[in-house]
Design goal:
Layout (H helix, E strand, L loop, with lengths): L1 H9 L4 H4 L28 H25 L12 H15 L12 H10 L3 E3 L2 E5 L4 H14 L2 E5 L1
Helix pairs in contact: 3-4, 5-6
Length: 159
């Protein structure tokens, strides 16, 4: 559940901007920023589709928590105390995420989404800077300046 929440918050495929609706046409997968190869090459889905899956898993989690409440105090079956504080932490986290709504939108400073947007605008990250073609101007240049600032990169121009 936490991973699904974090995936939505990070939105490393920039689905919020690229494919929000389930009915929208598929989009190509963005390669991971780590540079590592991935075996996942298919359609990354849609933002709304990920919300549907989040709600489905949340419903299943709530059912499991309800079933657990019906069983009562289960630690009678754990005389050696194997559950311990880690089990309590896991339970507390399950309760927290069972009540958590999915993010309405990804974090604005999400590095993956910002880099994907910069690439769409024709920029490239190289040598710790965001490189832009010399002829870029207007709104595109302003957007790239903001992205560079948010990413903590210098904006440089290539010929």
């Amino acid at each position: 559940m936490k991973k699904r929440y974090d995936d939505l918050r990070l939105d490393d495929q920039d689905l919020y901007n690229r494919r929000r609706r389930i009915s929208a046409p598929p989009v190509p997968r963005i390669p991971p920023l780590s540079g590592r190869r991935t075996t996942v090459t298919g359609d990354p889905g849609s933002w709304d589709g990920h919300i549907v899956q989040y709600d489905k898993v949340k419903k299943e989690l709530n059912k499991l928590l309800e079933d657990m409440k019906k069983l009562g105090n289960c630690d009678d079956d754990d005389p050696d105390g194997y559950g311990g504080p880690k089990m309590q932490d896991a339970y507390d986290q399950a309760v927290e995420y069972s009540q958590k709504q999915p993010p309405e939108e990804p974090d604005i400073r999400n590095r993956s989404s910002l880099l994907a947007r910069a690439n769409e605008l024709g920029a490239q990250v190289r040598d710790g800077a965001l490189w832009v073609a010399a002829g870029v101007g207007g709104a595109v240049l302003i957007a790239l300046e903001v992205i560079a600032r948010l990413l903590g990169l210098d904006l440089r121009f290539r010929p």
